[in-house]
């Protein structure tokens, strides 16, 4: 145990090593470590953000899905209503058309009946005149009784 | 194994405890322990060079195995410093703690190398009769470090508190501001300031020196006969394993005390 010049030389060596560590060893390693810590922190934050966004997206998608379902059911409801309306309208139109056809047919029929009656009446009149002519041919001068005959004919018409 | 002289227990121990010295100048102080200095410098260059080579290529991405190893050591020390020192530790304190820990650890670890084999190597390979392989068994080494840290402590006291603040602390703590207590406070602080470097350096020196002596005694026992060799080897192996703990623990304690002393210099009572 004797203190000597070694003390000073060791102190110098020690100082040099301290200087070396402070200057060359510590800063680059610290930089690397801190940069990595930052990267990891950023990654974790990004992961957290992603998780949050996923949550939001799933919530949004379920919202959209629910809305779509609701709208679909509304559309179906409307379509059913519309279908009933169309059917009702078709029925009504058909009934009207039928009525119209029936009315037309009835009018035709009455017209036919009328013209048939007319034709019949004319025939009957001609027959009657022909009969009367035959009867009268002997007794009646056609010329003398022409006005009567025309009047009868007019009447029969 | 002092060659050429008669081997007695005294000469064996003497040989292992003798430094390779050189006289720098006149006077008993101007003696240099060449072995202590060279060994410690070689160890420092190897360890800090190794760390520097790895750190130079340090990447913030996925680290290589060697970088991960260095980072493990650095983050361990950085954590210890962070818990004790509340300031910008990256300027000096944390790298200082790293230097102290690594260097002391390496110097202490020399103690685990088989003492007689190392003596044989230095004698027969390098031709050096006396070469103490463990720098921390030299009180000059531990004192040099403790005193350097002591001066840093004084420097930070002055820098952080100013001369007035430091004087105030010396005279008014820990007992109080009363002028009657000034002398007592000063005396107390004087003892504290003297005891700090002494306990700091002698704790490390004492532990490692004692470990060295135990190895020497076991080595001496091994020279007494076959049973002595067997028991000496077994106990030597046991002591070496136990010494791994002491070596690391003493390096850690030395580093922690360094950090604590410098933190105390930064903080007012």
TrEMBL record, chain A:
Transmembrane segments: 6-26
Alphabetized Pfam families for the sequence: ATP-synt_B
Domain of life: Bacteria
Keywords: ATP synthesis, Cell inner membrane, Cell membrane, CF(0), Hydrogen ion transport, Ion transport, Membrane, Transmembrane, Transmembrane helix, Transport
GO molecular function: proton-transporting ATP synthase activity, rotational mechanism; proton-transporting ATPase activity, rotational mechanism
UniProt-annotated location(s): Cell membrane; Endomembrane system
Cellular component per GO, a single term: endomembrane system
Membrane topology value: Single-pass membrane protein
PANTHER family associated with the record: ATP SYNTHASE SUBUNIT B, ATP SYNTHASE SUBUNIT B', CHLOROPLASTIC
Family: Belongs to the ATPase B chain family.
Function in brief: F(1)F(0) ATP synthase produces ATP from ADP in the presence of a proton or sodium gradient. F-type ATPases consist of two structural domains, F(1) containing the extramembraneous catalytic core and F(0) containing the membrane proton channel, linked together by a central stalk and a peripheral stalk. During catalysis, ATP synthesis in the catalytic domain of F(1) is coupled via a rotary mechanism of the central stalk subunits to proton translocation.
Subunit annotation: F-type ATPases have 2 components, F(1) - the catalytic core - and F(0) - the membrane proton channel. F(1) has five subunits: alpha(3), beta(3), gamma(1), delta(1), epsilon(1). F(0) has four main subunits: a(1), b(2) and c(10-14). The alpha and beta chains form an alternating ring which encloses part of the gamma chain. F(1) is attached to F(0) by a central stalk formed by the gamma and epsilon chains, while a peripheral stalk is formed by the delta and b chains.
This protein's name: ATP synthase subunit b
Source organism per UniProt: Nitrosomonas oligotropha
From TrEMBL, chain B:
Entry keyword Cell membrane: yes
CDD domains reported for this sequence: ATP-synt_Fo_a_6
Record has Membrane as a keyword: yes
Keywords from the named record: ATP synthesis, Cell membrane, CF(0), Hydrogen ion transport, Ion transport, Membrane, Transmembrane, Transmembrane helix, Transport
Top-rank taxon, per record: Bacteria
Matching Pfam families: ATP-synt_A
GO cellular component entries: plasma membrane; proton-transporting ATP synthase complex
GO biological process: proton motive force-driven plasma membrane ATP synthesis
Protein localization: Cell membrane; Membrane
Gene3D superfamilies given in the database record: ATP synthase, F0 complex, subunit A
Chief place of localization: membrane
TM annotation in the entry: 37-55, 92-121, 141-158, 213-234, 240-262
GO molecular function: proton-transporting ATP synthase activity, rotational mechanism
Topology relative to the membrane: Multi-pass membrane protein
Role this protein plays: Key component of the proton channel; it plays a direct role in the translocation of protons across the membrane.
Record family assignment: Belongs to the ATPase A chain family.
NCBIfam families, sorted: ATP_synt_6_or_A, PRK05815.1-1
Protein name according to UniProt: ATP synthase subunit a
Gene name of the encoded protein: atpB
């Amino acid at each position: 145990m004797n203190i000597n010049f070694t003390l000073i030389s060791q102190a110098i060596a020690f100082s040099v090593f301290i200087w070396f560590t402070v200057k060359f060893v510590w800063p680059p390693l610290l930089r690397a470590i801190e940069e990595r810590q930052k990267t990891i922190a950023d990654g974790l934050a990004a992961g957290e953000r992603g998780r949050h966004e996923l949550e939001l997206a799933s919530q949004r998608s379920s919202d959209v899905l629910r809305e779509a379902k609701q709208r679909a059911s509304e559309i179906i409801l409307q379509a059913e209503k519309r279908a009933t309306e169309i059917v009702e309208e078709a029925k009504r139109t058909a009934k009207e058309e039928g009525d119209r056809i029936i009315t037309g047919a009835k009018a035709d029929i009455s017209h036919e009946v009328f013209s048939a009656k007319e034709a019949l009446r004319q025939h009957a009149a001609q027959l009657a005149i022909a009969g009367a002519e035959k009867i009268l041919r002997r007794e009646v001068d056609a010329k003398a009784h022409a006005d009567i005959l025309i009047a009868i004919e007019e009447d029969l018409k | 194994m002092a060659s050429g002289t008669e081997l007695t227990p005294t000469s064996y121990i003497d040989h292992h405890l003798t430094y390779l010295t050189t006289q720098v100048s006149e006077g008993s102080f101007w003696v240099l322990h060449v072995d202590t200095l060279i060994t410690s410098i070689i160890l420092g260059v190897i360890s800090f060079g190794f760390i520097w080579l790895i750190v130079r290529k340090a990447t913030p991405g996925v680290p290589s195995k060697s970088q991960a190893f260095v980072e493990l050591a650095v983050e361990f020390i950085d954590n210890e410093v962070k818990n004790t020192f509340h300031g910008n530790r990256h300027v000096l304190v944390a790298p200082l703690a790293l230097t102290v820990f690594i260097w002391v650890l390496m110097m202490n670890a020399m103690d685990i190398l088989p003492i007689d084999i190392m003596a044989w190597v230095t004698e027969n390979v390098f031709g050096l009769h006396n070469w103490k392989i463990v720098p921390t068994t030299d009180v000059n080494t531990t004192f040099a470090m403790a005193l350097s840290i002591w001066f840093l402590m004084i420097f930070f006291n002055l820098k952080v508190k100013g001369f007035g603040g430091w004087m105030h602390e010396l005279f008014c703590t820990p007992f109080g501001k009363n002028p009657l207590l000034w002398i007592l406070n000063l005396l107390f602080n004087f003892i504290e300031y003297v005891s700090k470097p002494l306990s700091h350096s002698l704790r490390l020196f004492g532990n490692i020196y004692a470990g060295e002596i135990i190895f020497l005694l076991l080595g001496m026992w091994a020279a007494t006969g076959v049973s002595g060799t067997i028991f000496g080897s077994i106990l030597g192996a046991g002591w070496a394993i136990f010494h791994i703990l002491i070596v690391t623990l003493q390096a850690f304690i030395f580093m922690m005390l360094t950090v604590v002393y410098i933190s105390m210099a930064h903080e007012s009572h």
